[in-house]
Every structure is written in structure tokens, then in C-alpha cells.
Specification:
The chain is mainly β. The protein has one domain: Neuraminidase (6 Propeller), CATH 2.120.10. Helices cover 7% and strands 43% of the residues. It is built from 1 helix and 21 strands. The strands form 5 sheets. Strands 10, 11, 12, 13 and 14 form a 5-stranded antiparallel sheet that branches. It has a 4-stranded antiparallel sheet with strand order 1-21-20-19, with no helix packed on it. A 4-stranded antiparallel sheet has the order 2-3-4-5, with no helix packed on it. Strand 3 and strand 4 form a beta hairpin. It starts with a helix and ends in a 5-residue tail after the last strand.
């Protein structure tokens, strides 16, 4: 009887926690995307996005050192760029003529798209796991989202690190650290990160908890949005167009890979 009661209480706590997170962002209608595109099977394991132009978007997928240029108006891959040796790649960002790809161990590969990429290492010890990278142009850096800290005792916090273009290196300490459970889903594990081009808020996506965490530009908590499992079956990538459109990609999982477009409404 005691086991059943504890199980029931735990379930209720989980429901209450998630219900408290069901906030909406007035700028986007997450329940009714403007466009949903079925992706090619080459992108079954799509893990990162980077907006390029009014019709194209960069995509990267697990286990391959290749950046795909996807034309979302035509619904097809139009080009790809190889970065070298394959690995577990979990994000992509662009800084001018340079393309930056994130491997799950935190190492960043930067290429001018004409030759082999140069590797920059994340040097902290431990089994760190990273998913999500984006350009912070105002601060001349990359923001890199840590999915799981190398020290298991610290995994009740969310960590975001910075890679500076001033000296092409990581800062030793995280630029942002937030405690899970205080408005942040207790099971939050980063899978993508992007900066809103207008508000400059930081959006951090979690496929594991199906949530989006919104932070201010200085890393303060603002809001968490709970996503629909039906629409966002395995959300791994996130990016914005210059005019504020939000793009989220889903890995195949048990259905098919998709690219979702949410139109921006200024409020």
C-alpha cells in the first residue's frame, strides 16, 4: 500500500510541475504551426539548425560531419558541405563566412567552407554532453548548451558555456548557470539553443522534457513553454529567421523527420 501511495504522490507532483509550465508565448502559436515540412530520410537524425536566407536553412544530423543546405520553400536538400571525420554532431552556427559545428563532447569545428575544418577543444575534464550552439553576435561569441554536466552531482543545474571569437577558446566557467525546478522543468536537458533576433532573448530547447526555456539576454529566467508531444515528437533543432520566424526540427523517432515554422507576431 505504501509503495502505491508514494507512486501516486510522485505522479501527482509530476503532473503539477508540468501544469505549472504550460505557459504560452504571445509571439508564437505553438499549437498551430504555420508550416510543417516532411524532411528527406537523409535528415532522419536531424540534430541542429541554422537559418541562412529567406528560403534556405542549414541542417546537421547525428553521426555525420556534413552540413546540409535545405530549401524549405522547395522542400529539398540543394547542397551539402563535408567537415571531415564523422562524429556525433549536435549543432551548427554561422559567423560571417565561417561555419561552426558542435560535437557532443563540446569540441567545435570551424570551417570557411573551402577546406578542412579546424578543431577547438572543450578542455574541462569529465563526461560532458553538449547539444546546441548559436551565434551571439553582440558579444562576438558562441553560446554552447550543456545537456549533461561532467560531474553527475551538478546535473540539477543547467549550464551554458561561451566560446569567444576574440581568442577562439572556451571560457573555463559557464556564462550562465540556472537551477532546475524553479520554473524550469526538472527533467530539462538541452537539445538546441538560439537567440531571438528582435528581443535578444535566449531560447533553449529540450527534447527530453518537450519544453522551451526563455532567458533574457543576460541569462535570467523569463518563461518555460510546454510543447505538444503530437507536434513536437522529438524536437532537436531550433533557429530564427531575421524577421523572427521560429523554426524547430524533429528527428524521425517513430514517424518522420519534420521542420516546423512558427510565424512571429509582434506584441
Amino acid at each position: 500500500m505504501r509503495v502505491k501511495i508514494i507512486g501516486t504522490i510522485s505522479a501527482l507532483i509530476g503532473v503539477l510541475t508540468i501544469s505549472c509550465l504550460k505557459n504560452e508565448l504571445n509571439e508564437y502559436n505553438f499549437s498551430h504551426p504555420a508550416v510543417t515540412i516532411k524532411l528527406d530520410k537523409q535528415l532522419n537524425e536531424i540534430s541542429g539548425l541554422q537559418w541562412l536566407s529567406d528560403s534556405t536553412i542549414y541542417c546537421v544530423q547525428d553521426e555525420r560531419a556534413r552540413a546540409y543546405i535545405f530549401n524549405f520553400k522547395k522542400g529539398k536538400i540543394v547542397r551539402f558541405i563535408d567537415f571531415g571525420k564523422n562524429g556525433d554532431f549536435e549543432g551548427i552556427a554561422v559567423n560571417g563566412k565561417y561555419t561552426c559545428m558542435l560535437r557532443s563532447d563540446g569540441n567545435i569545428f570551424i570551417s570557411d567552407n573551402e577546406g578542412k575544418a579546424k578543431e577547438y577543444k572543450f578542455k574541462k575534464e569529465g563526461s560532458f554532453d553538449f547539444e546546441g550552439i548559436c551565434l551571439d553576435s553582440l558579444n562576438n561569441r558562441l553560446l554552447v548548451a550543456c545537456k549533461a554536466h561532467g560531474n553527475k552531482k551538478k546535473r540539477d543545474n543547467l549550464f551554458i558555456y561561451q566560446f569567444s571569437f576574440k581568442d577562439n577558446s572556451y571560457s573555463y566557467n559557464p556564462v550562465f548557470k540556472l537551477k532546475k525546478g524553479k520554473g524550469i522543468h526538472p527533467n530539462f536537458k538541452s537539445s538546441g539553443i538560439a537567440i531571438h533576433p528582435i528581443s535578444k532573448d535566449i531560447y533553449v530547447l529540450s527534447s527530453f522534457s518537450k519544453t522551451i526555456l526563455v532567458l533574457s539576454s543576460n541569462g535570467r529566467f523569463k518563461k518555460t513553454v510546454q510543447l505538444s508531444d503530437y507536434i513536437y515528437h522529438q524536437p532537436e533543432g531550433i533557429t530564427f529567421s531575421n524577421d523572427g520566424k521560429l523554426f524547430i526540427s524533429n528527428e524521425k523517432n517513430e514517424t518522420c523527420p519534420t521542420l516546423i515554422q512558427l510565424d512571429y507576431k509582434k506584441v
